[in-house]
Amino acid sequence: MAKRYAKPVGLGIVAGLALFAAFLGWKHWQQGKQEARAEAFVTALDQLQAGNLAKANELLAPLAKDGGDGSQAAAMMLSAGIASEQGKTAEAAGLFGEVAAMGSAPQPMRDLATIRQVVLRFDSMKPDEAIAALKPLAVPGKPWFGSAGELLGLAYMKQGHNDLAGPLFAAISRDKTVPESLRQRTRQMAGLLGVDAIDDVKQVVQDGSAGNGSGQ
């Protein structure tokens, strides 16, 4: 089951996190008034959105090599994302690992880099490694509780500890700060593992009816 769900979970996590990294980098640059670097970063983002990965990477390269701060980390995050998109998994994982270890980078970005690295290496990692990396992040109230927790649950399943995975999936599904798509997915996972994650059956039915465009 873990093998079946790991890939779609990883893809779901990857989809939105690069944008958050970009936001963190932009915010840092604005605060530091580093206009030239910010402009180069925005130009790289434009190229990235247009699908010009090579050009975007070319613009990001000098930013990723210089700075030693949040702006450098954001550029490295995007460079790693491009490498991942190009199938250069080892290179991408290495870059994410560097950001995760970068003491001068904002903590949310470092945590994000840790998650991205685990996503890329999940299939080849030993469950113990994944658990050690994710457990500090999979805590209710922390920014990445949902994303880190879902991966942590899958790592528990690989380890054979469905008794730990099920309640964790249920906790994520009940957390209203987590995106609804993730809550639904973890609710299903909890159910498959025999854990009831539905606190309010009436509300769930109403939500489902609203999603189907029916008041019945």
Provide tags for this entry:
216 residues; mainly alpha; Serine Threonine Protein Phosphatase 5, Tetratricopeptide repeat; 2 domains
Task: Describe the structure in your own words.
By secondary structure, this protein is mostly helical. It has two domains: 1-124; 125-197, Alpha Horseshoe (Serine Threonine Protein Phosphatase 5, Tetratricopeptide repeat), CATH 1.25.40. Helices cover 75% and strands 0% of the residues. The protein contains eleven helices and no strands. The protein has helices spanning 2-32, 35-49, 53-65, 70-85, 89-100, 107-121, 127-134, 145-159, 162-174, 180-192, 201-211. It starts with a helix and ends in a 5-residue tail after the last helix. Residues 5-17, 200-205 and 207-216 have low confidence and may be disordered.
Helix content: over 70%
Q: Spans of 5+ residues with little confidence (pLDDT < 50)?
A: 5-17, 200-205, 207-216
Shape: elongated
| Tally of DSSP β-strands | 0
Distance between the amino and carboxyl termini: 34 Å
Strand content: under 5%
Describe the structure concisely.
The chain is mainly α and 216 residues long.
Please render the helix and strand layout as text.
Elements: H1 2-32, H2 35-49, H3 53-65, H4 70-85, H5 89-100, H6 107-121, H7 127-134, H8 145-159, H9 162-174, H10 180-192, H11 201-211
Helix pairs in contact: 1-2, 1-4, 1-6, 1-8, 2-3, 3-4, 4-5, 4-6, 5-6, 7-8, 8-9, 9-10
